Amino acid sequence: MDVPSMSLALPGHGVDDLTALLRELENLRQSLLDAEERECASIEAVMARHRPSAINLVHYVELRSHDIRELQERLTGYGLSSLGRTESHVMPGIDAVIRTLKQLTGHRAGQRQGPVRVPSAGVLTRNAVSLLGAHPKDRPTRIMVTFPSEAATDCALVTTMLSSGMDIARINCAHDDADAWSAMIRNVRAAEAELGKSCLISMDLAGPKLRTGPLVPRAQVVKVKPERDERGMVVTPAAVWFGEAPAGASGILIPVIDPAWAARRTVGQRIHLVDARGSHRVLTVEQVHGTGCLVSFRRTIYFEPGTRLRARVSGGERHGAELVTRVGALPSRAGSITARRGDLIRLMADLTPAEVTDGPVHSIGVTLFEVFADTEPGDRVLIDDGKISTVITEVTPDIVTVEVHNAGVAGMKLRAEKGINLPDSTLTLSALTAKDVDDLAFVRTHADIVELSFVRSAADVDELLVRLDPTTDAALGIVLKIETVAAFDSLPQILLEAMRWGDIGVMIARGDLAVEAGFERLAELQEEILWLAEAAHVPVIWATEVLDDMARTGVPSRPEVTDAAMAQRAECVMLNKGPYIGETITMLADILHRMQRHMAKKRSLLQRLSAWDLNRAVDTTAPSSSNRHAPDARITVR
Q1: pTM over 0.90
Q2: Which of 443, 422, 421, 423 is nearest to 432 (CA)?
Q3: Digit-coded pLDDT (tens) for 569-581
Q4: 3-state secondary structure of 598
Q5: Which residues have CB under 8 Å from 77's CB, separation 6+?
Q6: CA dist 230 to 100, 244, 288, 300, Å?
Q7: Please, is 331 exposed, middle or buried when counting C-beta atoms within 10 Å of its C-beta (0-12, 13-18, 19+)?
Q8: Closest CA to 544 of 509, 516, 514, 512
Q9: DSSP letter string over 360-374?
């Protein structure tokens, strides 16, 4: 049906400009249809429920392949939509502007060309509920919490998490085992029954882990020093137990070769030694218990195995004689290498503990050495969350040599079990390890959601899907962890592949993603992932170091509070474990509750702010004692 034309009294150049805008938008619309045609096979392959979403995703990706910033400015100048918030409905958004421009320029709308596919309202909301469960009444964003190992044995801890606001319990399959996972789930079910509240279970497959290998342990040396005040005066003498300490005793234990020697000491007796630095020290016996004695001293001592302990006998026939024993084996300390700019590090397939060297050439083994077959000289190798930045200089079958380009001003410690990222290399390594496949059997029967780590391509998603049964596993949701640059670059294809399954979501794993892309680009990438996921109507989990200081220390930092507030744009936020996790969940729930009044995705919500009133006289007096401690005493939102 034709739409009656309408024109406005605009200057001649205004009509011409509007006509030009109309033509540009019509051309843009056609490019979206062409893209849809090109991707028809991928669109047809998705589940029927996802097909409108797949079409919208293709339209959005095509729209973002054009630089329309100048076009947006011109549209805004006429009070028209800039298309800046059309992620969830790309074609309808463009069509609405085209219809308005036709009316403004006097063009007849004419018959629409081809079917108009409008994604039904609330698709993303429904998908989020299907994957993540219904959101709480007081906030639209769920809270996922990573379980510590203690959750298997401490039911009260799990109950505290659930009562504080946890909606999804996350179990990391990289830690513990099936028995511990089962115990965690039982504790969740017990907490649900006690509180009358439901909680989903998400299980994270560990994926392949490229890490540094072991180093030869450092010398077995134990340093013990007294407590001193600001002037350096001893406030509390140092104390250690020689031999064995009584049950419940506090203090450091120093084993000795002859425990009976410690048992024969007497209170007040002096013990002499020369420590690892060659310093002579005198210790006083304070207490004897069983085969151990407690000694005190007022100067720092470095104990090492073999240190001679001499005690003089007083009185009797043996007066003045020396009774001697030696310090026994002490716990070894983890070795470390100091890597400095310009040093060379030889990454080896051999996982034999490597010797610690002072440089400038170091060696250390790496797990999954086979991935280096996909690397070449010039590729970056980032170690320990990017703290040590290196570039490959040589690749051989058993050794990859890298040069340190950045390791801080004074160098960085390189230790065992530190993660390695290869942001420039196209890796052919499977996202599923043999352990993941074994763990998947447990996940399929116990979890509501499975998280796939180290996703880099659509093929990785397909590898998971072929291991799931669409009939028996249909209720299992899939969350794809976006933690590499390769995953970001392939995200449209990854989402289209995932749409072959029912309930799907993505997690912005900001830790590794920041390392690979560069910390300065993280904010940009997380925004793009949020927008693309919205175009695909796929729920997002905002993860990594949310309120991390709060969870670890009980006190949040200012930046992380703002970060938590921005997380409200996602459908779920993930918290990591920590001793103050209950208080952290409560704080996050409150932040999310407050932010829902101000923001929904990219839209700012402008509710009435009674704090700003130009007609009200400014009160310069201090708040009254009755309300000055209230959190909203000076900022009122209605």
Answers
A1: no
A2: 443
A3: 999 999 999 999 9
A4: coil
A5: none
A6: 75, 34, 33, 17
A7: exposed
A8: 509
A9: SEEEEEBTTGGGGGG
